[in-house]
Each structure stands twice: as structure tokens, then as C-alpha cells.
Amino acid sequence: MDFQSKEVGMARQFKLKLSVILILSVLLLIGCNQKEAPIKPNILLILTDDQGWGDLSFHWNELVETPNIDALANESVVFDRFYVSPVCAPTRASLLTGRYHIATGTTWVTHRMEVMREEEVTIAELLKPYGYVSGLFGKWHQGKQFPHDPIGQGFDEFFGFAEGHLNNYFDTKLIHNFEEIQTEGFLPDVLTDKTIEFMEKQDSFFAMLSFNTPHSPFQVPDAYFDKYKSKGLDDKDACVYGMVENIDDNVGRLMHYLKQSGKIENTIIIFMTDNGPNGIRYNGGMKGKKADLDEGGVRVPFFIKFPGYGHQLIKPWGGHIDILPTLADLLSIEIPASLDIHGRSLLPLIKGEAGNWEDRYFFTHHVHLKFDTIPGAVRNQEYLLTLKNKQKALYNLFQDPFQKNNILETEPNIANELEKHYMAWLKEMTKKGVEPPLIQVGHTNVPTVELPASDAKRLGNVLFKGEMGWANDWFINFKNPTDKVLWEIETVENTKYEVFVQMANDKPFKMEIFAQGKNIIYETDKLHQTELIPNQDRVPRTEVEEMDWPMISVGEIAFHKGQARLEISFIGEEFGNIEVKGVVLKKMK
After folding, report:
1. Mean pLDDT value of segment 74-91
2. SS3 category, 578
3. Inter-helix orientation angle 187-201/235-261, to 10°
4. Collapsing DSSP states into helix, strand and coil, what is residue 191?
5. How far apart are CA 314 and CA 96, in angstroms?
6. What pLDDT score was predicted for residue 355?
């Protein structure tokens, strides 16, 4: 057994042991003091995608209208400086685990660099022994296949999409647990409907509503778009602000349900966003946007409303790593030391105990295609050091919150000290390595396993249609037999699958599929074509279009326990135009 297989096995044992320990602890508490056991509050966590700090009228944006979110903020504890990661998957990993994303295995947003290791314990898993039923509605972006999907990471219900983004927001297809379903309507409205249905059914719930907007593609119903076009905005900003107002309307619907049902009195509500804005627009004068290390790229709204506390503004900074320990503190749940939580409970600040609050460092790392030590940043309450390619900058955030004056030359000792902290942190966070976990197949409860192009490696001349290989992309440019694509797999139990290839071709072809020592040769004269699924884009998209892909059954493969590769290549001299979207494995009965 290799090292990675041992790690995975140990991870499964650890999670099982943790669940047993937590369950026994709960039973002991109930047995000792059953009559006095308090009813723990429900949790609704609302997370939006690519909405910046400035995309709220609560933050003095004079163009966008967000009365429902503003009203929630005015009833909530508001953190003046709340930090996340520069892009979405890393923020989600830290939010869910209370740990810096690099330590969880999540380093970026595609090519499996978004996948969180299965041994990580999420909020949903921490709450499960205490009677909570957890549901995730919307974007996941921590791994597509079980056990790296929401069901494998503790959620009892998943209604949404596992990728970084979808290609269409109207009448789209989603995953409900392990089944693909067709939806009707504008996606944020559909997700809100399902979240309300979930909260209606549960006595003790953790509902995570992870909106897909205002992330691209830029699509929104006419009424929202027309309203902001009439204010003189260009098509993109009119669509973004329309998306934000739609989010606000759905927040209003959620609050209406909680008040009408009476659950508002026993529900913790969090509203936050995952990174800075996806474009240059009002952001409170801060430097930077999404994917930047600067304040504008990582400082976001964070409002938390819970019984017994009214509105207040907290000045000391908080971050995504603090959400899990704060919730645990609010619910009087002890976190096992073995989880190695990097965040800190914010409850002392909320209780007005800021006088005893020690400042700390918040670390940021960003990847562009390949993992490196930079770009990175470290900040505390007063200073921010950014480390970029051949460029360092130090700012005093008290005196210069908009980062106008680089004081690196005048304060070299402070910069050197901060950089030492950053490098020590990065070394600690990467001690398990940064290689993504393998795709797992063979789980008895999973009937279908999808292997998308973005999860594969490509050899030779093969390219991505959309160049970068974002979610939903596909392979092109097969020129000769040495051009191939491959998926690295771990089979947990011997399983036989029917293998389908999602692909298109304009000439007859001969294809070789290799896995587990078996070669399948598939040859056909039939032509297969994709069909464009119409969209409602307001501006030209940068991502690929959504297509209806032919599914070609190429044969059966018995996968045996252990590690393997599934490879696809083509045989011959003239291939024509071949496009491969991915592979689908369907379990044989």
C-alpha cells in the first residue's frame, strides 16, 4: 500500500472515531442532565459568489438596492474587517473546517486543486452528533466525486452543483444527492425555494445556502437588468447589480419564512460573501478585486444574527477560519484538539471582551495555474504585507486603509518580521503536500461517477477548448496517437462499470480506453455532434458554452481495489475534429 492510500485509510478511521467520540459525549451529557439540556439553535448560513464588500447599499453604494440585507445587518453583529481568501474554493474550505485552505488540500479553483481532503471535518460533520440535519443548497466547489462531495463531507442533503460555476442560470440541471434533475426558473430563486422547504421539514437544522450569483455568466431576469440599465450602467454592472438585488429579494423571502414560522427566535443567521468583486466597481475605495491579495480582494461583508444579541459593530478583524469555532462556542460544542483548528471563536468580541483580545496574523495565499510560495500576504490589525512576483509592499492599515503609500523602505524590520511569519506559516500549512487526492470509485452508495475534463491530465497536443480548463470545459486538438488524457483513480472496492465517453467527432474514429490493465478498442463510422444549449447572457462570456453532449457506451471495465489510471487516446493518422467532455462510469448490477 502506498503512502497516499495509507493516508486515506487513516482519514476514514479518524472520521469514524471522531463521530463515535462526539456521539458518546452527547449521550453522556444527555444522560447526566437530560432535563436541563438546552435546545440548540438552528443555523442558516448565506454565502454569495463574487459579491464584493461594496456591493451593498449598507456599505454606502448609491446604485445598488439591498434593503433586506441592510435590515439583516442592522439586526446583526457586523464585523468591520472580515477576511476571506481571494477566490472561492479556498474560502469555502476554510469556512467549512476552521482551517487554512492549504492545510485542507484546497489550493485553487480547478484541475482538482479545489478538492478538500476527505479527512477534514466540516461544520456539518461536527454538528451531526448533536441532532442537526445539514443541507447544502447551491455551489459546493470542494470536489465533484464522493467522498469529496457534500454527502461525503457530512451534509444530509445536497441540492446544487459541485463545480466552480454553471454555464446557465435559467432552467438548469442540478444534482440532488446523487441524481441529476431538471429545474425551472432563475437558479437563485430555485435554491431559495429548496432551502425554505428544507428548513420547514427540520427541527434542528444547519442550512447552507450557497448562491451562484453574481458570478459569471452574467444572466438575470429582465426586471432586474432593466432597472439598473435605466440608471446608466453598462450591461455587465447592470447585470451584476440586478443579480445582487435578486439575492436581496431572496434574503427577504428567507427572513419572512423564519419570522412567519417562529423559527427566527431560535436561528443563527450568517450573511457573507466569498471574495472581492468580480470586476472594477464601487468597493469602498479599497485597492484590489477578486483574485487580489489587497484589501479589496479579501475583505467582505460578514453579518451574524443570533438570539440574545442586537446590532453592534466589531472593529478587531475576523476571518473565514473563525466561523466554525465561533459556531461551536455559541452552541457550547467542544472541538476536539485533534482537529487542529486555525481560527478562533469570535464570541468574546461579541460579548464585549475586546479588552482581553490579542491581535494575531491572518495569512493569504493565491495560486495561478501552478502552486508557488507567492503570491501571498500577511496582515494583522495594523499592517499588511503583500508578496507578489518581484514586488513587495507594506502598508499601515490604520493610517492608510486604501493602500496608497508603500512604507517598505521606511519600515524594513516590520516587513522582514511579517515575511518570516508568512514563510513559517506556509511551511506548516504544506507539510502534507499540495497534491490533490485521487478520484475515488467503487463506493457502494454511488451509482454513477463523473470524470470531467477539468479533473484530468492531458499529454501531447491536447488543449482545453476554453484554454484555462475552468469547470465545464472540454478537450480538443487530438492530433496523433501519443495525444491522450488520463484520470488518476483509487478504487475502494472491486466494482464493474459501464464506461461512457462524452464526446463529439466529425470523422470516423478509432479510440482506445485503457484502465486496470484492460484495453477497450472502440471504432465507429458514426458522427456525433454536440448541440448548443441557448443561454440568456447579458454580456459576451469568457467561459465555454453549455452543450448537450452525446454519451457513447464503449464497453465494461472491472475496477479492482487500488490505484489506477483511466486513459483515452485515438488510433490512426487523420482524426478530424475530436472533442472530449469527460467519462461517466455507471455501476453494473
Report:
1. 98
2. strand
3. 10
4. helix
5. 22
6. 79
CA angle 407–410–413, rounded 5-degree value = 100
Say whether 317 sits in a helix, a strand or coil.
coil
> For the chain, what are the domain ranges?
1-36, 38-357, 363-429, 439-587
- Rounded distance, CA 443 to CA 493, Å? 7
Query: Alpha-carbon distance 505 to 588, whole Å?
Result: 27
Distance (Å, whole) CA 396 – CA 406: 8
- Give, in degrees to the nearest 5, the angle at Cα 358 between 415 and 432: 65
Dist. CA 567–CA 362, nearest whole Å? 42
C-alpha cell at 138: 447551491
pLDDT for 3: 34
Q: What sign for the dihedral angle of Cα 160, 163, 165, 168?
A: negative
CATH of segment(s) 38-357: 3.40.720.10
Q: Over 80: is that where the pLDDT of 34 sits?
A: no
Task: Return the CATH fold of 363-429.
Answer: Arylsulfatase, C-terminal domain (3.30.1120)
Q: Minimal CA–CA distance to 214: which of 277, 259, 166?
A: 277
Rounded Cα gap, residues 317 and 540, in angstroms: 38
Topology, domain 439-587: Jelly Rolls (2.60.120)
pLDDT digit string, tens, across residues 285-301: 999 999 999 999 999 99
Give, for 395, the enclosing helix (H) or strand (E): strand 391-396
Determine what percent of the chain falls in helix, strand and coil, rounding each to the nearest 5. Answer: 30, 30, 45
User: Residue 30: what pLDDT?
Assistant: 44
Q: Give the pLDDT of residue 523.
A: 96
Residue 390 banded pLDDT, cuts 50, 70, 90: confident
pTM: 0.94
